Amino acid sequence: IPVDPFDLVIFGGTGDLARRKILPGLFRRFNSGQMPEEARIIGAARSDMDRQAFQNMIREAVAEFGGPHDPEALDEFIGRLDYVAVDAMGDGGWEDLKSKLREGVVRAFYFSVGPSLFGALAERLRGFGLADDDSRVVVEKPFGHDLASARALNVTLREHFHEEQIYRIDHYLGKETVQNLMAVRFGNMLFEPLWNAQYVDHIQITVAETVDVGGRGGYYDKSGAMRDMVQNHLMQLLCLIAMEPPARFEPDSVRDEKLKVIRALDPVDYHQIVRGQYEADDSQPGYRAHVDNPRSTTESFVAMKLSISNWRWAGTPFYLRTGKKLRARASEIAVVFKDAPHSIFGPEAGTHRNVLTIRLQPNEGMTLGVTIKEPGPGGMRLIDVPLDMSFADALGPDAEDVPDAYERLIMDVIRGNQTLFMRGDEVEAAWAWTDPIIEGWTARGDVPKPYDAGSSGPEDALMLMHKDGRKWRDIR
Ligand code: NAD
Fold first, then answer.
1. Are 427 and 324 in a shared domain?
2. Whose CB has fewer CB within 10 Å in the chain, the N or C terminal residue?
3. Best of 112, 118, 130, 228 for a ligand 1 pocket test (most atoms within 8 Å of beta carbon)
4. What is the tally of structural domains in the chain?
5. CA-CA distances (angstroms) from residue 368 to 131, 211, 233, 336, 387?
6. Which of 93, 124, 140 is the last residue of a domain?
């Protein structure tokens, strides 16, 4: 179903994110017929280039990152692109940009620039009369560096726009599986009655990356895994797993429930957190060489045990971990159910736990481990088999048109649906929980534990679960 006609202005239209994700994503939506005839996309950035040069740049980017395509379709898409050189901090280019905007279509402004420019852009969009009360602004991460800066950013944005106009992106929320998680939880009778401390032993959330901090070293070293991943992405996944059923699948209904989860998080005891930093090996430099700071104590890995103080989850721990340079690239949530209270099959049959695994990448899908009898004449021996739901297998060719996170989220902006975007108070609550942890590390002069590149993180992270008689799932 095509969305309404729109003018989408991408500030930072020549940047890495725009070229790798936003524009190739828009092209895929164009290909699937979701973009109406009248839709137009205007790149706006500092580089002094003309429309033709921008179109050439994006043609190359889409050819590289947009997947297989028909050259004619690409020509048609490129024809929708325009460019204006604009300085976010100055007055140049704004009148020109304004003259390109049309009346009577959805107007959206994507801030794909560094966060230090968000305020200046918001102010000029209003000052030069490009935005009105119906316009939308899309804001990239990082949203603040701590509670104070996130608050300040919210204040600045709200001086110019209402909360209903502000779309704070967390692309994890745009993933198909993440929404499927809500469909599975709230569309079935099967899971929700068991979704609590009485039946769930613990929940694990893993976001493992194989990449190093390479090109982003300067930024990353000021941030670390806690700010870069936990405060936003892992926290959002935790919220969706742990929240109460919203009354409706509507923006504030869902976001109210997520906010309650963050507010119910207990402060974390520092014994329950392990920080790590990858070391050099024979062939590759370690973290400190990548960030060019031989004494850096920033973490490239963090694992922690959390508890949520409410009726549903009191007694069920949540274990989170994320890091760079790990054994495999894998993002998954595992809901590990408790043992059956009594085994009628005797000790030799073995005990097995049901685990619901929600996999975000690679190979988005869900698996439920169920216990069955081992086939054959060998008596009653139990084995685990997966009930598998891979989108590619289950949906066949339809699965190929599953939009990736950025595409979906941009279409949601045009539709005016904020359900999968973070509200200002949510972001602030997440920082309010994160800040004391980071302040504690600073105050104690905490030094992260070294770990080998290609491993599953520092030994202490394994111990974090081991001492509770539990075990991380393999990173595969
Ligand atoms: P980038 O450095 O590649 O691009 C920055 C863009 O901003 C360029 O188009 C540049 O011309 C423009 N710009 C800079 N100063 C300007 C000014 N004064 N006026 C107008 N335009 C100006 O950055 P990026 O990697 O594309 O990231 C953009 C934003 O997206 C950042 O907030 C970043 O944190 C966020 N982000 C990026 C990625 C990624 O994969 N690259 C992922 C998540 C979030």
1. yes
2. N
3. 112
4. 2
5. 48, 29, 23, 10, 5
6. 140
Residue 472 included in any domain: no
* Rounded-to-5 percentages of helix, strand, coil across the chain: 40, 20, 35
Per-residue confidence (pLDDT) for residue 398, from 0 to 100:
66
The answer to whether residue 474 sits within a structural domain is no
**17 ligand 1 Cβ < 6 A:** yes
Q: 91 near 44, Cβ under 8 Å?
A: no
* 400 is a domain residue: yes
Summarize pLDDT for 170-218 with one digit per residue, the tens: 999 999 888 889 999 999 999 999 999 999 999 999 999 999 998 888 8
Of the chain, the percentage scoring pLDDT greater than 70 comes to: 99
The parent domain of residue 82 ranges over 6-140
Which of 9, 14, 16 gets mutated to test ligand 1 (max ligand atoms within 8 A of its CB)?
16
β-bridge mates for residue 41, sequence order:
8, 81
Q: How far is the CA of 307 from the centre of ligand 1 (A)?
A: 36
What pLDDT, in 10s, does the model give residues 414-439? 999 999 999 999 999 999 999 999 99
Residues 343 and 428 in one domain: yes
In angstroms, rounded to a whole number, what is the distance separating the alpha carbons of residues 132 and 129? 7
- Is the Cβ atom of 14 under 6 angstroms away from ligand 1? yes
In a domain, 325, yes or no: yes
- Condensed to tens digits (0 to 9), the pLDDT of residues 377-415 reads 878 888 889 888 776 677 776 666 678 899 999 999 999
Domain boundary among 115, 140, 165: 140
The verdict on 221 and 104 lying in the same domain is no
The answer on 128 and 28 residing in a single domain is: yes
Mean per-residue pLDDT over the chain, rounded: 94
- Confirm or reject: Cβ of 168 under 6 Å from ligand 1: no
Look up the CATH number of the domain holding residue 85.
3.40.50.720
Residues involved in catalysis? 233
Atom nearest to 12 CA in ligand 1 = 9
Taking the centre of ligand 1 as the mean of its atom positions, its distance from the CA of residue 338, in whole angstroms, is 46
The ipTM value here is 0.98
Q: Are 251 and 426 in contact (CB under 8 A)?
A: no
45 C-alpha to center of ligand 1: Å? Answer: 9
Distance 261 CA to ligand 1 centre (A): 32
